[in-house]
Design goal:
Elements (H helix, E strand, L loop, with lengths): L1 H32 L3 E3 L4 H21 L6 H25 L7 E3 L19 H15 L4 H32 L1
Antiparallel strand pairs: 1-2
Helix pairs in contact: 1-2, 2-5, 3-4, 4-5
Length: 176
Amino acid sequence: MSVILYVGFVLFTGIERLVELVISKRHAALAFSRGGVEHGLGHFPAMVVLHTGLLLACIAEVVLLDRPFLGAVGWPMLVIALLCQAGRYWVIWALGEQWNTRVIVVPGATRVTRGPYRWPWLRHPNYWIVAIEGIALPLVHSAWITALVFTVLNAILLLGFRIPTENRALAALRES
């Protein structure tokens, strides 16, 4: 029964991601209509594959490797995963029309200073949430291989490509 519930939870998470893509597409269209310039097109497909792969790997590892639900780990990870969901929507709310899954900078846009963006010491809060979720979601049902592989690949993608791309794009905006 726990496997069925877990698969349902992961599938529900996937549905949430599809809703986020609809929001993102709407926000991207608005940004482009305002003269937005996209950065980092090269790494975006890898992000899509990695995040889709996380959901699929969570299910595959639990089902194929018969991973158990261990309450001592599973319950706290479930709470953390649910808090990450709330955090994702806090970020989406805080960024408003500026939020999307791509790096699009609109000339003249101002820096967001509400929600988790009000604290200058907390850089890229969305990526912290994604990193934590990438550990918590698989560990809800002991999918430790998925948690480990996603964490390593996500760190490479974020630290090597995504965050530097965003930082350069935002720096260029401030200079113009």
